[in-house]
Amino acid sequence: MSARPPRRPAGLRAPDKLVFLLSLVPYLLEQRVVDVADAAAHFGVGEQEIRDAVMLIATSGLPGATGTYQPNDLFDIDWDAFEDDDVIVIVHHVAIDDAPKLSAREAAALIAGLRYLSAAPENADSASLAALTEKLRAGASGEPSRIAVAEEAVDETLAEVRRAVASGRRLEFDYLNARGEHRRRRVDPLRIASLGADWYLQAYDQHREDVRNFRIDRMSGLSITDEPIADHTGRVIPETLFQASPDDLEIVVDVAPESLPLLADYLADSTSTEVGGRLRVTLRLAHVHGLKRLVTGLPGLVTVVAPKEAREVVAAWAEAGLAAYPDDLSDRDPIEAEV
């Protein structure tokens, strides 16, 4: 009985093959001259798949005004180099130059975002981000504006917290809670999460003996200790930042429908009532002070309905903010609690 030949690995699925082909042409044009073996290693596919793809590219193009393909309407390669030396050289290409390009402003905005990501410790000296930045700069319709991304104090604290999480060492810091109370905390850092523009550390609080969330911009006097964190393998870390508690306050608000997803973590339930073109929902928060930043982060989109204490706190917060502006602005009518 003869041995069965080894099974050939399955080829790319149709969606993956399309992405592969769309990526292969720009790669070949950028490299200009590339061995089949090098292209296969770059894309993580077999050499025969590269050859088959090149054959397909050579029969592709863009028909002319008559709807038929003329010699200059198709891709062409150096067939001698391909067949004799297994080298790919595209000597004629079509349609690629007609692809839409990013404007200089669009490219500048994306480059600024990449620079912000590069500031994170885990992305330091990232070759991928640097290469993507250069591709954006080269592919823009004009020279992107030079945008400086300022590093804030919270970025430095965030970087320090990330180092603590990565090294698995305990953290000590002074924490200012929403009530304005200072307390020195000693925690086992577990995970970093974000909600909107705010960053949070999920950590095991040694004093509370439970997992707590700490907003990173409220931390100061950070110190990474030499003590390793305890084993929290069996501990359940909540997927969402905020969990319901029997002590939570229920606050009724009217919110613009398009902004409701931004409050998903705070909703007491899924019920809502339409009132004057807005949705009336109930939020659950640990304390009324946490409502101030939530409402001011969605100006004009959230109206506090009840309880009275919550309306007064938000109004006082807004009035205090207005008072910090020049006198000609503070002469305006007082801010109503529901605004």
Automatic annotation (TrEMBL):
Residues 156-222 form the WYL domain. Residues 16-138 form the PafC HTH domain. Residues 249-320 form the WCX domain. It comes from the Bacteria. This is WYL domain-containing protein.
